[in-house]
Amino acid sequence: MQRVEVQLGQRSYPIDIDTGFAALPASLASARQVVIISNPTVAPLYLDQVSALFSAPPLHILINDGEAFKTLASFETILSFLLENSMSRDVVLVALGGGVIGDLTGFVAACYQRGVRFLQIPTTLLSQVDSSVGGKTAVNHPLGKNMIGAFKQPEQVIISTATLTTLPSREFAAGMAEVVKYALLGDAAFLDWLLKHSEQICQQQPETLAQMIRHCCQMKADIVSRDETEQGERALLNLGHTFGHAIEAFMGYGNWLHGEAVAVGMVMAAELSAHRGWLSKQDVASVRRILQSFGLPVAVPDQMQIANFMPFMKTDKKVKDGQMRFVLLSAIGQASLVADVTEAELLQVFG
Amino acid sequence: MQRVEVQLGQRSYPIDIDTGFAALPASLASARQVVIISNPTVAPLYLDQVSALFSAPPLHILINDGEAFKTLASFETILSFLLENSMSRDVVLVALGGGVIGDLTGFVAACYQRGVRFLQIPTTLLSQVDSSVGGKTAVNHPLGKNMIGAFKQPEQVIISTATLTTLPSREFAAGMAEVVKYALLGDAAFLDWLLKHSEQICQQQPETLAQMIRHCCQMKADIVSRDETEQGERALLNLGHTFGHAIEAFMGYGNWLHGEAVAVGMVMAAELSAHRGWLSKQDVASVRRILQSFGLPVAVPDQMQIANFMPFMKTDKKVKDGQMRFVLLSAIGQASLVADVTEAELLQVFG
């Protein structure tokens, strides 16, 4: 087992990465009331194994699979289930699934009786390397992704690489977009490592995957420890996300996977960076190439013009004092937050 | 102007109590985006005055008046309004109204884009002495009051005693229940003061009211500073609330005012305390008398048996390890949290 610690004072917690589900500390395993929140795809595969981690038999509730169900309606469904089953403030909620289940469960854990404990057991690559770590929780609104949420840290994150064997390859690729993101925004050496190991990664070699996941979790844990509520540095984790969120929202949540949209978003961020002379054309080409090597899209959907991006980007959470802010690349492996991108510049680059 | 400081480190804030609306600091007055959340009863009276506190003209949205509208549906209505009007993470939300508006606005402020600034401008006595201070925010669920919420501290609380001149007398009395609560739970000398000044209070003498409100805010601020998230002492502020919430929920939110239900709840807590030999019959009689002197009910509604209380009390947020917990009085002016009350004892006292 490999362990990464997220250092947040009293709210610190471990991420345990193993080839199966690591055992829980007694404080969680012996909880009187446990509710597992999962979906009909993941539950048949892992619900029994996860239930067995607890001494008392947990209850469970399934939410339909997919980004389209990361809504206030699902949030309310879970809250009603908790109340109907007389769950107290001692309850431990368990998110068993991908990013949708994790974000939704975390937001419920933040709000149920003003806050209860929860555990992240991410079963997709994307949630293992990104959304399960750092305490961002949210649901979507028709007018914007993740617009309703809270910062709520889990008690622990349990990652089993074995869950990736049952993940559809399209979902695996989508997770790789976030892996590549870490390399692009802050670790050029990791980009080389990814290029060198791309074959083992695509073949899903367990040791290689565990090493890769550990590296991403460590990078994210370090950033989150320094900037939990995204006052500065943490915003860099949004590389590719401003454009990506617009693609997801415009195409209808769930039609494009989050990672696919982020992959295209990172190419757009690279193109904008190149337009400013920060990246070379070769750099942009290599961003495209590595994403393609993991089976990811690199072109804006045919249906979308830059004008279609604008309404979404104007309500992006990074907007400050009326000004859109973008994460661009000052070099490969080095991101920075930029506040002077204008609509005119976007038209020039993408129009 | 009188000022009470709520000491919470980086989240500290002042409560300004005056006969009008005190001026705002520049950091709030100059906000680019301001949204006032109010109701159709309060807005015609005070919206213009409050809007004038800001340099840019604020937007506003009105939510129907009453506890019945402190719901997830209203929460969603406000969130949609903020997104439709492209409000960014810089927005300042202003709660202008009573506890319903304050709790709802605070919960929106906690969740919109994972947290934005907000200002409490309570216009009822109850919200001035209680709900606007301390950062508890929530909405109700059909299965329980305040079951969905967050701890979210405001930037500032602005209290104008002038708003009490437009408050219906029934609402004023309901607020007095919370005032009496402070005396019963922690300050016997304040109970004497209330008895001595009951005439001036009922006549709403501005100086007396300001002094009374300041005293309550100071008591609450002190308790909240020591125990923000209710790990211990803060639970004492729930004196009368376990029974009271059951009355409110059973009778249908809004039919009994919160303060009226709490008044009866405090009498029940006193009776239970007397059954344990902690209070004398005279003590219970004087609890009844002071509540009645402010026009408050002191008897359980005719429609309710103790059995009707049970389902609500079993899902109370104070339930821990399956055990109901009650705030009882070990003496007049001294509350304590008790975990060994059984259904049998409740039947014996109230059956």
Point out poorly predicted stretches of chain A: none
List the helices and strands of chain A in order. EEHEHEHEHEHEEEHHHHHHHHEEH
Rg of chain A to the nearest angstrom? Answer: 20 Å
Provide the helix percentage of chain A: 40-55%
Q: Any idea how many domains of chain A?
A: 2
Sheet/helix structural class of chain A: alpha/beta
Number of helical segments of chain A? 14
The separation of the N and C termini of chain A measures 49 Å
Walk across the major sheet of chain A and give the strand order: 1-2-9-6-5-3-4
Q: In what range is the share of β-strand residues of chain A?
A: 15-25%
Identify the CATH architecture of the largest domain in chain A: Up-down Bundle
Main sheet attributes: strand count, strand direction, barrel closure of chain A: 7 strands, mixed
Mean pLDDT of chain A: 95
Overall, the morphology of chain A is: globular
The fold-level CATH name of the largest domain in chain A is Dehydroquinate synthase-like, alpha domain
Instruction: Count interface residues per chain for the largest interface.
Output: A-B, 37 and 37 residues
Question: How many β-strands of chain A, per DSSP?
Answer: 11
